[in-house]
Amino acid sequence: MIDVAASVHRFRLRETFTISRGSRDEAEVVTVVASDGTHRGRGECVPYKRYGETVESVLAQIAEMAARIANEPDPLSALQQGAPGAARNALDCALWDLKAKSTGQSITALAGLPPLGPVRTAFTLSLEDPETMREKARKHAALPLLKIKLGGEGDLERLEAVRAGAPNAAIIVDANEGWSAEGYTALVPDLKRLGVALVEQPLPAGEDDALAGIERPIPVCADESCHSSASLDALTGKYDMVNIKLDKTGGLTEALKLRAAARDAGFAVMTGCMVGSSLAMAPAMIVAQGCAFADLDGPLLLAEDRDPPLQIDGSVIQPPSPALWG
């Protein structure tokens, strides 16, 4: 029998983090512990208002899923019948960790994958006024890849400021659904001029059809428009890349399925995250292996983290220790 306990944890951020939909000063996460009576596995998720989730709704979903799989001979497989989202993610990752702890094998070995290597992550600059973003870009100019949050009036000035502050860094732009098709098209020449490597979710999810008729000289990545492998058919001809986040897919199991299906369908792959702790990033490290881009900088945005945390050297994340996860 599998016993499941869920609790809420809050981690202070180093500074206020802002995207087009709002700001936050802390990361509020749900931690799941799954136990077989001898071994314990952990997982973490971030309830996300954009997807209709609250801490309370996620805790209720975890309780329902836990009751349903408690006596299943293969609880990890049985869990996949539940809806994707944050709740299933935390439980899925906890069950993977429990399986590793109980068998004495790494999760990559259990999944038939090569051992983990280090991953270079983007570092995210939140949406602020151009001068503030210039100074933050200058502070982090030695990092090879910066991701900047846009999605409002003055975006070109913000992008110009970041490029001035970090002239040698590669730049990913994330509009978080904040642009119109006309606004995106007007910005494309400047995105090219300023050396932007990727544009993430420029239009609101549900308005993707407009991208099919727009030239995409810079790769465009689906984030809010891509949740699971079932999303891919609707993205063909509109996006060049998909951003896989475990809180969207509902865990590592579906994330690995989505990665394989995306590559088979001709999409490049990015691995992303919500603002969470090292416990949330650890399973995403498996998905990030060999991806075109990784955005797993959640721990770098925190003023406090799990013990032990992931080891991050500059922007290079080392594989997690089994004491953290896996």
Overall structural class, as computed from helix and strand content, comes to alpha/beta
Cα-atom Rg, whole angstroms?
19 Å
Helix and strand succession? EEEHHHHEEHEHEHEEEHHEHEEE
Order of adjacent strands in the largest pleated sheet: 5-6-7-8-9-10-11-12
Outline the biggest β-sheet: 8 strands, parallel
The parts where pLDDT drops under 50 for at least 5 residues are none
Task: Report how far apart the termini are.
Answer: 21 Å
The overall strand count is 14
- Relative strand content: 15-25%
Which geometry do the CA atoms define? globular
Instruction: State the helical fraction.
Output: 25-40%
Number of H/I helices: 10
What's the average pLDDT? 96
Topology overview:
Elements: E1 3-19, E2 22-35, E3 40-45, H1 55-69, H2 75-79, H3 86-103, H4 107-110, E4 119-120, E5 123-125, H5 130-139, E6 145-149, H6 155-165, E7 170-174, H7 181-193, E8 196-200, E9 220-222, E10 241-244, H8 246-249, H9 252-264, E11 268-271, H10 278-288, E12 293-294, E13 312-313, E14 316-317
Parallel strand pairs: 5-6, 6-7, 7-8, 8-9, 9-10, 10-11, 11-12
Antiparallel strand pairs: 1-2, 2-3, 4-14, 13-14
Helix pairs in contact: 1-3, 5-6, 9-10
